[in-house]
């Protein structure tokens, strides 16, 4: 991994850890299978930390630009899928 996760310095340590865990699971969804429930759970936590849709879009775009992985498409696939596991 040769890029940085987009985070906000005003977040608490716990919030930063939770957001990094979400980003990490999105990466894993592209590289392996992940639990769809876990994606949705970590996304709900992400939304507690980042309730603003515009801020979410900004962070997702920054993450996609640096990593090539789409948080939006991963969450959408998890929401739309009936399978227990998803792979991007």
UniProtKB/TrEMBL annotation:
InterPro entries the UniProt entry points to: BH2638-like_sf (IPR023324), UPF0223 (IPR007920)
Top-level lineage group: Bacteria
Family matches, as NCBIfam families: PRK04387.1
The family this protein is said to belong to: Belongs to the UPF0223 family.
Name the record gives this protein: UPF0223 protein D1B32_07000
């Amino acid at each position: 991994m040769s890029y940085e996760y987009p985070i906000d310095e005003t977040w608490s340590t716990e919030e930063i850890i939770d957001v990094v865990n979400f980003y990490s699971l999105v990466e894993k969804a592209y590289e392996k299978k992940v639990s769809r429930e876990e994606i949705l759970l970590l996304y709900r936590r992400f939304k507690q930390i980042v309730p603003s849709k515009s801020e979410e879009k900004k962070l997702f775009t920054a993450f996609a630009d640096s990593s090539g992985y789409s948080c939006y498409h991963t969450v959408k696939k998890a929401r739309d899928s009936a399978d227990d596991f998803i792979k991007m």
